[in-house]
């Protein structure tokens, strides 16, 4: 995807509308609007701040109809301006930066391991791999909260998740794999719009940490099942022979 000059303009405008200058403009609109309303009202004899010409004239008696429409507009115009300002701000909040990074659509296997414990009450499983042993297993959680580029602290295998269906099918000893969607640049021409060293560092850190992995059970093939059954039979036979030998006193 290419980043255009229009995208960059909208992004810069979005930054402007999220700055302190925007709040200053909002405050000025409110102050000026309120001031104009009451000054006009007072100078034109009400109806809010009317000035009687003599002691016998009732306050605002002749001014309500004369100034009503003008004062309505003086009250409505600042409100319209504020609505336009905040509406524009909301629309521009969706403008993306040129150095935006996103998870790729490509799925990549980053680890294989074995389930060492399952906690049904919390929806968590512990997984050991070559780089994570029994004393520090990877902890995957059902519908875990994913790590984002803005997450302040990023640890290895953070955000590892498992679907509820996969969780229900797992037992201790099952083999699993962890797949991730590596982070990448959203826009190919991101380097044309300024320095992106920080975003590049974030991409490297997220992918190195293998965050937001998805745990998937590895189904044993028929050959593996046969070997497993064969080994189970051999172990049972050895156990029976050991019991028989001990009974004979050997």
Write structural notes for this entry.
This protein is α+β, with helices and mostly antiparallel strands and 250 residues long. Helices cover 45% and strands 16% of the residues. The chain contains 6 helices and 8 strands, in the order αααβββββαββαβα. The protein has helices spanning 5-17, 20-43, 64-92, 164-169, 197-209, 222-248; strands at 101-103, 108-119, 124-128, 138-142, 161-162, 175-180, 183-185, 214-217. It has a 6-stranded mixed sheet. It has a two-stranded antiparallel sheet with strand order 1-7. A hairpin with a 4-residue loop joins strand 2 and strand 3. Helix 1 packs across helix 3 and helix 2 packs antiparallel against helix 3 (64-92). The radius of gyration is 35 Å and the shape is elongated. The N and C termini lie far apart (77 Å).
Give the secondary structure arrangement, pairings included.
Layout: H1 5-17, H2 20-43, H3 64-92, E1 101-103, E2 108-119, E3 124-128, E4 138-142, E5 161-162, H4 164-169, E6 175-180, E7 183-185, H5 197-209, E8 214-217, H6 222-248
Parallel strand pairs: 4-5
Antiparallel strand pairs: 1-7, 2-3, 2-6, 3-4, 6-8
Helix pairs in contact: 1-3, 2-3
Helix content: 40-55%
Tertiary shape: elongated
Bin the strand percentage.
15-25%
> Radius of gyration from the CA trace?
35 Å
E-strand count? 8
**Quaternary form:** single chain
Q: What is the typical, i.e. mean, pLDDT?
A: 83
Number of helices: 6
What is the first-to-last residue Cα distance? 77 Å
Uncertain residue ranges: none
- Biggest sheet layout: 6 strands, mixed
Strand order of the largest sheet: 5-4-3-2-6-8
Helix-strand sequence? HHHEEEEEHEEHEH
Derived structural class: alpha+beta
């Amino acid at each position: 995807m290419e980043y255009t000059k229009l995208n960059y303009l909208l992004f810069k405008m979005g930054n402007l509308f999220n700055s302190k200058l925007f709040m200053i403009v909002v405050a000025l609109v409110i102050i000026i609007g309120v001031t104009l309303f009451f000054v006009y009202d007072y100078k034109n004899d009400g109806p809010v701040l009317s000035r009687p010409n003599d002691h016998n004239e009732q306050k605002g008696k002749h001014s309500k109809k004369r100034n009503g429409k003008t004062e309505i507009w003086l009250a409505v115009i600042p409100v319209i301006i504020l609505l336009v300002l905040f509406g524009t701000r909301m629309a521009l909040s969706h403008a993306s930066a040129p150095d935006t990074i996103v998870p790729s659509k490509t799925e990549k296997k980053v680890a294989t391991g074995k389930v060492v414990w399952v906690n049904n009450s919390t929806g968590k499983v512990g997984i050991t791999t070559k780089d994570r042993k029994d004393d520090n297993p990877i902890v995957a959680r059902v519908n875990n909260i994913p790590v984002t580029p803005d997450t302040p602290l990023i640890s290895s295998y953070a955000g590892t998740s498992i679907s509820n269906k996969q969780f229900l099918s797992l037992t201790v000893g099952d083999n699993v794999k962890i797949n991730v969607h590596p982070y990448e640049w959203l826009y190919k021409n991101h380097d044309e719009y300024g320095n992106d060293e920080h975003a590049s560092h974030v991409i490297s850190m997220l992918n190195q940490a293998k965050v937001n992995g998805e745990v998937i059970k590895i189904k044993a093939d028929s050959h593996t099942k046969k070997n497993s059954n064969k080994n189970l039979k051999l172990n049972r036979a050895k156990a029976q022979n050991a019991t028989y030998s001990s009974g004979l006193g050997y």
